[in-house]
Amino acid sequence: MMTARIDSLALIETSCWRELQQAAQQTDHGWRTMVLATVEDGVAQARSVVLREVLADSRELVFYTDARSAKVAQMQAQPVGTLLCWSKDLGWQLRLRVTLQVQTSGLNVSSRWARLKLTPAAQDYLSPLPPGTPVAERYEPERATRDHFAVVMARVLAVDWLELHADGHRRARFDGDGAQWLQP
Ligand SMILES: Cc1cc2nc3c(=O)[nH]c(=O)nc-3n(C[C@H](O)[C@H](O)[C@H](O)COP(=O)(O)O)c2cc1C
Q1: How many angstroms separate the CA atoms of 34 and 31, rounded?
Q2: CATH number of the domain that 56 lies in?
């Protein structure tokens, strides 16, 4: 838990973006793993994703995925979603309303793949079968011929911040209309 409580909405919003930037760097930050919720035929879909980069100036969060995954088709059909994260250390939950853009080619993708392909994590994007394909019990994957790396850019439209605290919970919304305290 934080020792001193920030009581200005502007400072809280700045702190959220600073913590998001730290979360993209620190593997043990509670916000490093987020839940990405998307929509498919009117049904909510959700899964964990790792926060890779934060572009605070353009209010964008960057994720990596397999271009053949179900979430990519969902984002292409309906490019809106919600990102959810919770940090026990901060006592802070964020619910981020986002627009979602999937990129499978171009400099944004090639520059990141150039770095990633030298690491063991590259295997995540080299499977010859799309994620979610049913496989036999002892399936031995063949060598991949190409990668299916995709970059997801999530632009934050609105932030719903919730602080759990022994002295009283607090909640605020930050969006295009400004900042507003809310009843938790
Ligand atoms: C801790 C954790 C982190 C994950 N990070 C990612 C990620 O960064 N990108 C990704 O595509 N899948 C990630 N996954 C796997 C997804 O949660 C999901 O199982 C997979 O992408 C298939 O989702 P879909 O069928 O909705 O596309 C992660 C799973 C866990 C448990």
Answers
A1: 6
A2: 2.30.110.10
